């Protein structure tokens, strides 16, 4: 280290992502519009908040999940769950050309997401150990059981659709998958928020709504890709509302998170998040304007599916970035302590002692 | 006590004011627990080359060099009154030898601290483990069962202290067990046994808390105003740690979170929000289909 007297003062580790020296931190809820990539030492609009760290190293251990596996898992789970909801609606309202591809989508997506989940395990052959316990304190345990309920239903819905066997059973499975689908699409929000990762945990109130709307956009987009326009009306409505909801809720979430929302604007996570919003908005506009054209509809649908995937990738990457920088762990916690101390100082002496 | 006798809660009190940075704890831990090599790296961060707690580092000695007076780290014990100040022991300084003005001791202090798993009262790693591999022992410590762990990696980002980690060559999660195999036999953990200055003290958590309180009072009386306890408070965000510390600076200087909170504290609210979002998705889809037929 060239500057040893700075250790413990937010000094950076060579080759580490954390910014060397005093790092600025924006006050909660005071983050303005998008800012470009800022270099060290550049002026900021708000005063720098000093924070201290151990040689600039992160407090948290880095997320060991692969972005492709678990980011993909978040996206595919949403696509599957919402596809089943739309497939059930299509089945109940007599739109077979919309129901069929969505049932296939649901089965393919849930198979892919389960494969991704197992692939990401350090010991994939021990996947079944997940079924040893039923543990409400672990979203992954609950998710496993949700998948165990939903997967066979989605599978039965798709297989009966393809083969034409047991139509009544297929109908029941379709409705069952449609009712459990929303859980598959949203439980992944508690899954990632129930961690110490600042960019995930701090958004736990909004994240389920981001995931639900993103799932609706993806499934609706899939409906636009696969179904003829005579039957894809509800998918179009779901897609447009989902995409607008996705952009609105994720923007709201990033702003409400305070400092922990900063990674969503920076680096790779920022690029992914911006691309996701652009694709989702473009897809929504295309889906509305191109509602008489099969080709434009399909193209818009594809943009929405891609937008949803990028939203999840951006959220995953923001989590990684927020875990890698001690700033996002230390500064909010330090502020919390200071606020608590200030509150205690304001309280009149002796008032709170007897409880 | 009932028939199924439950031993008192065991833990560590790590008094960093007497840590000399010998790393005997790191070595003893590796030896006893057969923890593999954690990388032969030169990290250029004082004498710390293991860097952080991880799957292969269950005790980690932090070294912090600060431009602050050494004075209040001087015990003053055994010095006759009226004699000259302490002899220069050639302690490290920021200036080359002889460059400092006026001799005496430069403003330099060296903080050392042996970090370890906190064995939280409310342990996030244990809460989120989907296989039940992590469990709470009869000593109120938190241990991973390596024959159950399937390496899902959920405990890693759940830990607010960055303790538990997945061993890449092996695929499973590992961390300090508070030497579960030793304490069951009435032995103290390997690190505490090896510590030459009793910086690492093992015992019943209640008694250690008392001892820590007295130690901090003694240090304050001796003028070490920067001494403070970390993790001993049962009212904190993790319900108090089974392994707590006496520090001489802010926790974040040692790489510890200043106000850790167990993430599962907010889980009931997370489930409620997720349930609401699922209901909105279902209702929204119903509305989409309720519109005119097209």
Question: Mind sketching the topology for me?
Answer:
The complex is a heterodimer of chains A (355) and B (294).
Chain A: H1 67-92, H2 96-120, H3 139-163, H4 167-186, H5 188-193, H6 198-201, H7 207-226, H8 233-256, H9 267-289, H10 294-324, H11 326-346
Helix pairs in contact in A: 1-2, 1-4, 1-7, 1-10, 2-3, 2-7, 3-4, 7-8, 7-10, 8-9, 8-10, 9-10
Chain B: E1 10-15, H1 24-33, E2 59-66, E3 109-116, H2 124-128, E4 134-136, E5 142-144, H3 155-158, E6 165-166, E7 173-174, H4 180-183, H5 190-194, E8 200-204, H6 205-221, E9 228-230, E10 243-247, H7 267-290
Parallel strand pairs in B: 1-10
Antiparallel strand pairs in B: 1-8, 2-3, 4-5, 6-7, 9-10
What does this structure look like?
The complex is a heterodimer of chains A (355) and B (294). Chain A is mainly α and 355 residues long. Chain A has one domain (67-325): Formate dehydrogenase/DMSO reductase domain (Formate dehydrogenase/DMSO reductase fold, Up-down Bundle), CATH 1.20.1630. Chain A has eleven helices and no strands. Chain A has helices spanning 67-92, 96-120, 139-163, 167-186, 188-193, 198-201, 207-226, 233-256, 267-289, 294-324, 326-346. In chain A, helix 8 (233-256) runs antiparallel to helix 9 (267-289). The longest helix of chain A is centred in the last third of the chain and has 31 residues, at 294-324. The termini of chain A are far apart. Mean pLDDT of chain A is 88; it is low at 1-47 and 351-355. Chain B has a four-stranded mixed β-sheet. Chain B has a two-stranded antiparallel ribbon with strand order 2-3. Chain B is built from seven helices and ten strands. Chain B starts with 9 loop residues before the first strand and ends with a helix. Chain B has helices at residues 24-33, 124-128, 155-158, 180-183, 190-194, 205-221, 267-290; strands spanning 10-15, 59-66, 109-116, 134-136, 142-144, 165-166, 173-174, 200-204, 228-230, 243-247. With 294 residues, chain B is of the alpha+beta class. Chain B has two domains: 10-73 and 105-261, Alpha-Beta Plaits (2-Layer Sandwich); 263-294. At the A-B interface, helix 1, helix 3, helix 4, helix 5 and helix 7 of A face strand 2, helix 2, helix 3, strand 6 and helix 7 of B.
